[in-house]
Design goal:
α2 packs across α3, α7 packs across α8 and α10 packs across α11. Among the domains are: about 140 residues, Rossmann fold (3-Layer(aba) Sandwich), CATH 3.40.50.980; about 100 residues, 2-Layer Sandwich (GMP Synthetase, Chain A, domain 3). The strands form six sheets. A nine-stranded mixed beta sheet has the order 2-1-10-9-11-12-13-14-15, sandwiched between helices. A four-stranded parallel beta sheet has the order 4-3-5-6, with helices on both faces. The chain contains 15 helices and 24 strands. The radius of gyration is 23 Å and the shape is globular. By secondary structure, the chain is an alpha/beta fold.
Length: about 500
């Protein structure tokens, strides 16, 4: 029997006593121990009635056990649905409903609110905490350390990742085994990863960057990870002499540069620093190189495609670009209206095609048809150009997407909450430059009647939206700027408020 993703990432490590996960508290988990844990979890999932093709939703804190749930799902052909730990019960209800999840695994602190959802949907509910306790591991404790691997093909779905939707409806991007495996294989070689690498892993594991890029690459290469629950500059600097590489978002690097202990000496053991999920300022590149003598490698990816481009490991890493198309990936720049390919150097919408590109949006055939062309090219919505050397530059984003601290935020989702509040005539949410997060969401509100209660709006956003989506500022104005067609000119609002967070303490 074959299961391409399991056979490539996990099966080769059975019986290996090589270190895989180092937890900063001193615990080390070998490859073999990790796989045996995953098999026991797989047994628990099977005993609970899950079969290949079922969906499992996971919303828990980062831990080796949480990563083992992913491995268990791959082994049993269960479609893995990781969810941001910041999502509220309101948001979770949609994901569980839409995906048709047969099981939800959550933190015990959220179990009561999620139980109200799973009772209605009929999904099983288990719990897991970062320490490894919870009903899932209790159930797994009675299972054997080996289990049958379910046969799957490369075209079978391995995961759903939900993206925020421009209309407020999130879209479930369907990723196949081949989508995930092909990208990991290319990146492992392109970035020079081997069994000798130790990755500083401070990213969350509920999205592409931390899960399907970082973890899959290290599994494929046979290296180890220093598995940190969250980014902490002090801990990073303590662990850096034990590591060879790090993957992060621009915020990681700005915070390291703000730390007095970060120096050329502290980074001397590191061979590679990778950044993605949001554009990095050229200033950050320059400061980092001046401080360490090393140049950050920037790459470009999306939920729907994993990684598309990367600056080279050996060769010119151009600041202000996201590098060259990866082997096997095609990137072109097209006219946003006609879809016609534009000449090199012209700005248009980026489209990508390759084995990394997703299968479509779950239960959204019309949306899939809008964004995924029949010839396999995916319309990213990002505005870019390809320079004379073939390097891709991201010059803007369609759909008013905000990227704050590496998280994607679609303004419409926040606007729907704000517009529903008393005293609000309409609102516009924009991304404003922020020195720490890259961008932060800001709400501009037009009042009606007696006007809005700002505290009430804030509470409503806190109740309905994940923390990273909360507007950092709520501003009042008489009217939103509009063009002759009546469309809100968010670019004018962004220009007007561009210096709102110029003071880093804001």
């Amino acid at each position: 029997m074959t299961n391409p993703l399991y056979d490539a990432l996990f099966a080769p490590h059975l019986g290996k006593q090589t270190p895989f996960i180092h937890v900063p508290d001193g615990q080390t988990l070998t490859h073999d121990a990790f796989l045996r844990m995953a098999s026991k979890i797989a047994g628990a999932l099977t005993e609970a009635g899950l079969v290949a093709g079922d969906r499992l939703a996971l919303q828990v804190e980062k831990s080796p056990e949480a990563l083992a749930v992913y491995a268990a799902c791959v082994q049993k052909g269960i479609i893995f649905l990781p969810l941001n730990t910041a999502y509220t019960a309101v948001e979770l209800e949609y994901f569980i409903d839409n995906s048709g999840a047969k099981m939800v695994i959550c933190d015990p602190s959220n179990a009561d609110s999620i139980a109200q959802i799973t009772k209605r949907t009929g999904a099983a509910l288990m719990t897991l905490v970062a320490s490894g306790a919870g009903s899932l591991m209790d159930a797994a404790s009675n299972q054997p350390e080996t289990t049958e691997t379910v046969e799957r093909s490369g075209d079978d779905l391995a995961a759903f990742l939900y993206t925020s939707g421009t209309t407020g409806r999130s879209k479930g991007a369907m990723l196949s085994q081949n989508n995930l495996l092909s990208n990991a294989e290319v990146l492992k070689d392109y970035w020079g990863f081997s069994k000798d690498d130790v990755l500083l892993h401070a990213l969350p594991i509920f999205h592409t960057h931390g899960l399907f890029v970082a973890s899959n690459i290290m599994l494929l290469s046979g290296g180890a990870m220093i598995f940190m629950r969250a980014f902490n500059p002090d801990t990073i600097l303590t662990q850096m002499p034990n590591a060879t590489s790090m993957m992060g978002v621009p915020t990681f690097y700005t915070r390291l540069l703000d730390h007095d202990g970060f120096s050329k000496e502290s980074a001397a053991h590191m061979r590679l620093f990778i950044s993605g999920s949001a554009p990095m300022l050229s200033e950050t590149h320059e400061q980092f190189e001046a401080r360490t003598g090393q140049r950050i490698l920037e790459r470009y990816g999306m939920t729907e495609t994993n990684m598309n481009t990367s600056n080279p490991y050996e060769g010119n890493r151009k600041a202000g670009t996201v590098g060259l198309p990866l082997p096997g990936v095609e990137v072109k720049v097209c006219d946003p209206e006609s879809g016609a390919e534009l000449a090199q150097g012209e700005i248009g919408v980026l489209e990508v095609r390759g084995p990394n590109v997703f299968q479509g949006y779950w239960q959204m055939p019309e949306k899939t048809a809008e964004e995924l062309r029949k010839d396999g090219f995916f319309i990213t919505g990002d505005l870019g150009m390809i320079d004379d050397d073939g390097y891709v530059q991201i010059v803007g984003r369609g759909k008013d997407l905000i990227i704050s601290g590496g998280y994607n935020i679609y303004p419409k989702e926040i606007e729907l909450v704000i517009d529903d509040q008393p005293g609000v005539k309409e609102s516009a949410v924009i991304g404003v430059p922020h020195p720490d997060f890259g961008e932060s969401p800001v709400a501009v509100v037009v009042p009606e009647g007696d006007g809005p209660d700002i505290d009430q709006i804030t509470e409503a956003c806190h109740a309905a939206l994940a923390r990273f989506k909360h507007p950092r500022k709520i501003l009042i104005c008489d009217a939103l700027p509009r063009n002759t067609m009546g469309k809100v000119q968010k670019n004018a609002l962004r220009d007007e408020h561009s210096a709102l967070f110029a003071n880093k303490e804001s």
